[in-house]
Amino acid sequence: MAYPVNVRLLCGNAIVREGLSRILMDRDFRVSQYPNIATALQKVEVPEEDTGPSLLLIDNGTEELDSDSVAVLQRRFPCSYLVVLSDRFDFQIMLKAFRLGAMGYIIKEISCDRLVATLQLVAMGERVLPPQLADELQSRPTLTDALEVERPVDAASLSDRELEILRWLIMGCPNKVISKRMEISEATVKVHVKAVLRKLRVKNRTQAAIWAANHGMRGRVSEVEPTIPVDVTIPHPAQLPPLERIAVPFSHA
Predict the structure, then answer these.
(1) I need a labelling partner for 141 at 20 to 30 A (CA). Which of 36, 55, 128, 236 fits?
(2) Which domains does the chain have, with CATH numbers?
(3) What confidence score (pLDDT) does residue 226 get?
(4) pTM of the prediction?
């Protein structure tokens, strides 16, 4: 016997909440409405309502989702899958939702049929991504740029000066060059290099440079340019001696 899908709908907008409830109940979903998370936690439910698959459908515009509120909901409804409903597509909000354990991220411009199909898939334990994600990824030059919510470089707790040193290490610059470019002593450079290696938990400068490159950092390419000594004069092309002709032996066929 197939049980109907239970949906606990958390939405602060009464009109949206009522409209979604009617749409889902017409498709044989069993819906419980709550204006906010606090009300859902206080509500005493009938045991029969926990029969069959269960979903927590939360309107992202109602309350700001965080790890604490999600943890409370998961303890209260341990067998429910979390689905986030949003007014518009936002990559960072979607990323945060899935990191908090969401199984679906739905944009409200979705059609009724696709909404029902998405919720049915989630009820079967499938994770569903919005179609807008494909367009978003195509518009980004690299996926690294899209994942700036938690930057691993920041997680290493490097100071601004240590980050500057690390960028020079990517270029393979020795301490003497770094000292000249940054206008600090070589002894100070050595201190910063040791601090960078310790914080990154690597053994040498090469490993530090590889770590930085793998985490999206770039070296000071634009600042490492060849310089022409001031005492060297570049002659005009007319002053150069004529090229000697090179005799090429001609072989007859």
Answers:
(1) 128
(2) 6-139 (3.40.50.2300), 152-224 (1.10.10.10)
(3) 39
(4) 0.53
